[in-house]
Amino acid sequence: MKKFDILILGGGVAGMTAGIYAKRRGKNVAIIEKFVLGGQVNSILHIENFPSQTEIDGLTLCQMFSKQIKALGVEIVRDDIVSVDLLGEEKVVTGKKETYQAKSVIIATGLSYVELGIGEDKFLGRGVSFCAVCDANFYKGKPVCVASKNGSGLKSAFELAEVCSEVTVLDAGDMSVFASANKNKKVNVVSNVKIEKVVGDDVVTGVVFEENGKEKQIETNALFVDLGKKPQTNLFDGIKLDSNGFIITDEKMQTSVKGVFAVGDVRSKELKQIVTACADGAIAGQFA
């Protein structure tokens, strides 16, 4: 079991800022991150409201954060957390590779994409994507679909239309008013759809869906799933959440469990921006 003073679960900008502040207090700090440092901020093309930067892309900003925490000596652990025991005085976090123990834990797990739940994940990277900005260029000049709910995928659809030959929005709600007013000839919106199956062998070749009680199939090179996001709190039993599943904290970022803090998009708050995530991280890193 690896032991630390402070464990930070998630390496987004909130988690990295928490690491900076905790490490500068002389603590033994580790950030556990399954994927890439910076999280979803990496996929933002244009950031114009981060203090000191007139304009910067998310990838560059995250690389600057990463360089700073590595220079400070914050340990970066690549692991996938499978369970936690945070109710005792000593906090235990179990990953697929290792078990970790700490006196304090900062939850910075952020948001995850809402899935269709039809097994589409087996086509990830082979025609199914949750990020239009990230993957649009892979389908340049090709037809694609967007899974949407009450217009959630419209922004992605218009971004995709800039490079793809045709974009079909398969929306679970009634989008007839928008469809009739839509002036983008490359974007077609279909209402009252229930997506049933992703078709393909090695890669996506089509999508089967039900429209007003009739089963249909559309040929496509990709399905971009854009149904919104949800807080990643499923592992944290015993921690008080709000009605939408976000973690409730006090002004010190302390949760309802002593020694456990929460920062960034996983926390219940009004304004979710990069700068507020950094503020959360600074406060939690200090008080943890």
Describe the structure.
This protein is α/β, with parallel strands linked by helices and 288 residues long. The protein has two domains: 2-113 and 229-287, FAD/NAD(P)-binding domain (3-Layer(bba) Sandwich); 120-225, 3-Layer(bba) Sandwich (FAD/NAD(P)-binding domain), CATH 3.50.50.60. 20% of the residues lie in helices and 31% in strands. The strands form four sheets. Strands 1, 2, 3, 4, 5, 6 and 17 form a seven-stranded mixed sheet that branches. A five-stranded parallel sheet has the order 8-15-9-10-11. Strands 12-13-14 form a three-stranded antiparallel sheet, with no helix packed on it.
Quick check: average pLDDT?
A: 96
Report the top-level CATH class of the largest domain. Answer: Alpha Beta
Order of helices and strands: EHEHEEEEEEHEHEHEEEEEEEH
Instruction: Give the CATH superfamily of the largest domain.
Output: FAD/NAD(P)-binding domain
Count of individual domains: 2
Radius of gyration: 21 Å
